[in-house]
Each structure stands twice: as C-alpha cells, then as structure tokens.
C-alpha cells in the first residue's frame, strides 16, 4: 500500500460523520413514517376491529412495534469500515443502505396491510356475536310414559 492509498482512505472522523448522517436520516424517516401511519391508519383500524377503542389501542401498539423493529433494523444493516477509497464510495454505500431501509419499510407496511385486509374480510364473512352470550340448556320434549295398569 503506497502513501496515496493511505491518503485516499477515509479517516475515523469521516466515517463517524457518515454514521451520524445515516442515523439521523433513518431516524427521521422512521419517525415521520410512524406518525403518518398512526394518523392515517386510525380510521382503517377502527373499521377493521369495529371498535374505536380497540382500533386506537392496536394502532398505538403497532407504532411501538414499528419503532422497535425498524430502528433496530436500520442500525443493524449499516456497517462502514476504513477500506473505502474515497468519499464517493462511502456516500454510495450510505445511499444503498438507506434504499435498503426504505424497501424494507415498504415491504413491512404492505405485509401489515395484507394482514389487516384479511382480518377485515374474515370478519365480514363471519361476523362476531355482539353482546354477552347466555347459556340456556335445551329442554327436551319429554312426555311422561302412560301409567302402568295393574
């Protein structure tokens, strides 16, 4: 490795800058998307579950799961090392990882929509009983036998 190669490699400070750019961008995308899905998904979930309180509760739980899954995944997929030959290569890798994150978010979103669509169509085909279920034992049609003649 000659001296020009050493000068072209990125410093640790530059790599940390790329990590910060990636983390900030990924966090912004995930937070914006979670808020958008929460606000716009409320009506849909109310219709899916046919109950406003249950829809709101499920929506909040989905947002928590969304944050945990996507922020964890975003931090997991981004790896840099000092072998980049220049800023263009490091920047290209940054864009590639952000694209992978966006594609993953889209797939997860479509998968969730498929699940809720199936819940809704299943509910429409097999409506749930409303109200408490009361148990009433069936009384058999019992006719006493005729009296025995001695």
Characterize the structure shown.
The protein is mainly alpha-helical and 150 residues long. The protein has one domain (3-125). It is 73% helix and 0% strand. It contains four helices and no strands. The protein has helices at residues 3-8, 12-49, 52-77, 87-125. Helix 2 runs antiparallel to helix 3 (52-77) and helix 3 packs antiparallel against helix 4. The protein is rod-shaped, with a radius of gyration of 30 Å.
Order of helices and strands: HHHH
Report the biggest beta sheet as strand number plus sense, adding barrel if it closes. Answer: none
Beta content? under 5%
What's the end-to-end separation, in Å? 121 Å
Question: How many domain units?
Answer: 1
The overall average pLDDT, rounded, is: 78
Total strands? 0
Q: What structural class should be given to the helix and strand makeup? A: mainly alpha
Shape: rod-shaped
Low-pLDDT segments: none
Relative helix content: over 70%
Number of distinct helices: 4
Radius of gyration: 30 Å
Write out key terms for the chains shown.
150 residues; mainly alpha; rod-shaped
Describe the secondary-structure layout:
Elements: H1 3-8, H2 12-49, H3 52-77, H4 87-125
What does this entry show, briefly?
By secondary structure, the protein is mainly α.
């Amino acid at each position: 490795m000659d001296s020009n190669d050493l000068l072209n490699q990125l410093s640790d400070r530059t790599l940390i800058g790329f990590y910060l750019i990636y983390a900030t961008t990924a966090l912004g995308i995930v937070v914006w998307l979670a808020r958008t899905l929460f606000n716009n998904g409320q009506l849909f979930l109310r219709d899916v579950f046919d109950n406003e309180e249950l829809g709101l509760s499920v929506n909040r739980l989905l947002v928590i799961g969304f944050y945990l899954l996507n922020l964890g995944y975003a931090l997991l997929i981004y790896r840099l090392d000092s072998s980049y030959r220049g800023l263009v290569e490091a920047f290209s890798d940054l864009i590639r990882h952000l694209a992978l994150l966006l594609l993953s978010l889209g797939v997860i979103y479509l998968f969730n929509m498929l699940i809720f669509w199936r819940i809704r169509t299943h509910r429409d085909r097999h409506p749930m009983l409303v109200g408490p279920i009361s148990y009433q034992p069936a009384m058999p049609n019992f006719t006493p036998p005729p009296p025995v003649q001695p």
